[in-house]
């Protein structure tokens, strides 16, 4: 059990912490809340970003807010 805890701590400090730091430098929030989404009126997909101008699934133009 102790070896597992040590192994997980090593993985966390060698992979997760540098990855979060790298993403923060790029301006992307790693492991954060997703941005606001909207629903496409044509195909009713609910995973479009709020600033999208076209639907990812059916390629219809989206009305601007």
UniProtKB/TrEMBL annotation:
Keywords: Membrane, Transmembrane, Transmembrane helix. It comes from the Bacteria. The chain crosses the membrane at residues 6-22. The keyword Transmembrane applies. This is Putative membrane protein. It comes from Streptomyces davaonensis (strain DSM 101723 / JCM 4913 / KCC S-0913 / 768).
